[in-house]
């Protein structure tokens, strides 16, 4: 049974000690609330592929140990003297950001995710003298939601709408907003989904959210492009069309079919071969955070007036709007709750490209059943 050994280290966390990305249980320090902060007892945290990218070195992070997790749902345990939005006992969520400058054009426009000083929920290094209330015990980097508690400025905390189950609420704060934001721009803000066709490449955690959101926006046809036939049955249960894109003929048949493509694939893949499924003037939105450059011929863009764009989560106002949209349309992600001891297995599955569409959500109350370590255990990661 885990017990906390050190007064300054007041929370348990699950995280990685090096780029092997094996998850161990260790202790971290979470600060008392500052005037504008909210302390949260975390109940559930969704597992996003970004958690793997951060822990396995894909993104160049080299500061250990690190607890990932940015799909956080929990209950407020304390508030600072100036906090106005939240009360103790309220159900809240935290997504991918915990701070930004609040002054720049981006922050003023509610696009905090593009603020040059945005601080991510995990893996962000604070500039010297800043963020004292959120650094890890050694003052290195932020630690995320695979932990029992977190302290965050109220600006980056969200109300969980009445009736929304805490088990899946956190998923909306990354997978939800990341897919909502481009669909909002391309569908909702352009007259709605009637007559539109949307394709989603990669049927994982983001992919399943994109299907549900696109359907709720009234999109006529939502199609999943997955590598093989394996996930066809699940796609048809969600009422969407399916293309196994390893079959070149199926891709050819879909030439010039879609208004928008959301690409959620987590590993390098041949984007050029998928572009022709877009109608003339269509947009190919890259969501998968793949660092490796890819090649696209200018000719395929010119002759079809294609746009290729990226999209990064969403700002604070759009995130609250997305939560309310999901509550209104009763959108429930595909998910399963797992015990903390199963997290390593899911991490491996994601890194091997074998994750299923259901988002895994860690029941954070099970963290206390793991052995607490100071460094990696000889006999392997948490189980
Ligand atoms: P996930 O659940 O692991 O799903 C990724 C999907 O990509 C898999 O289900 C699989 O789909 C496909 N895939 C995996 N390996 C592949 C390979 N080697 N070749 C081709 N396809 C492969 O991941 P996720 O949580 O949805 O995240 C997806 C990506 O989005 C990650 O890179 C993550 O970091 C990124 N992300 C970006 C943002 C943003 O703001 N832009 C926010 C959150 C996450 P099929 O089995 O159907 O082929
Ligand atoms: Zn994420």
UniProtKB/TrEMBL annotation:
GO terms for molecular function: oxidoreductase activity, acting on the CH-OH group of donors, NAD or NADP as acceptor; zinc ion binding. Its cofactor is Zn(2+). The keyword Oxidoreductase applies. Residues 15-356 form the Enoyl reductase (ER) domain. InterPro entries: ADH-like_C, ADH-like_N, ADH_Zn_CS, CAD-like, ER. Keywords: Metal-binding, Oxidoreductase, Zinc. Belongs to the zinc-containing alcohol dehydrogenase family. PANTHER family: ALDEHYDE REDUCTASE. This is Alcohol dehydrogenase GroES domain protein.
């Amino acid at each position: 049974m885990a017990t906390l050994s050190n007064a300054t280290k007041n929370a348990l966390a699950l995280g990685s000690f090096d780029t092997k990305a094996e998850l161990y249980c260790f202790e971290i320090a979470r600060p008392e609330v500052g005037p504008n902060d909210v302390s949260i007892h975390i109940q559930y945290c969704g597992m996003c592929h970004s958690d793997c990218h951060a822990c396995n070195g894909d993104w160049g992070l080299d500061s250990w140990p690190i607890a990932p997790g940015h799909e956080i749902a929990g209950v407020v345990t304390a508030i600072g003297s100036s906090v106005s939005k939240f009360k103790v006992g309220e159900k809240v969520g935290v997504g991918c950001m915990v701070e930004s400058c609040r002054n720049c054009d981006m922050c003023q426009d509610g696009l905090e995710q593009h603020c040059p000083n945005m601080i991510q929920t995990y893996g962000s290094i604070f500039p010297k003298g800043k963020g004292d209330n959120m650094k890890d015990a050694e003052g290195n980097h932020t630690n995320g939601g695979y932990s029992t508690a977190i302290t965050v400025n109220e600006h980056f905390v969200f109300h969980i709408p009445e009736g929304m189950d805490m088990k899946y609420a956190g998923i909306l704060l990354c997978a939800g907003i990341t897919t909502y934001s481009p669909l909002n721009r391309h569908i909702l803000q352009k007259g709605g989904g009637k007559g539109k066709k949307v394709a989603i490449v990669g049927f994982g955690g983001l992919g399943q959210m994109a299907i549900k959101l696109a359907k709720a926006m009234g999109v006529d046809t939502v199609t999943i492009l997955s590598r093989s036939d394996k996930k066809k049955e699940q796609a048809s249960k969600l009422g969407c069309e399916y293309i196994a894109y390893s079959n070149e003929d199926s891709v050819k048949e879909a030439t010039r079919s879609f208004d928008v493509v959301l690409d959620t694939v987590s590993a390098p893949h041949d984007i050029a071969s998928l572009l022709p499924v877009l109608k003339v003037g269509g947009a190919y939105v890259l969501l998968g955070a793949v660092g490796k450059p890819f090649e696209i011929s200018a000719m395929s863009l010119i002759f079809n007036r294609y746009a290729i764009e990226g999209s990064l989560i969403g700002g604070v106002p759009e995130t609250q709007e997305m939560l309310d949209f999901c509550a209104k349309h009763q959108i429930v992600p595909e998910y399963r709750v797992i015990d903390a001891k199963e997290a390593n297995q899911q991490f491996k599955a994601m890194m091997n490209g074998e994750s299923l569409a259901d988002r895994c959500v860690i029941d954070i109350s099970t963290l206390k059943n793991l052995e607490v370590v100071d460094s990696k255990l000889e006999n392997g990661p948490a189980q």
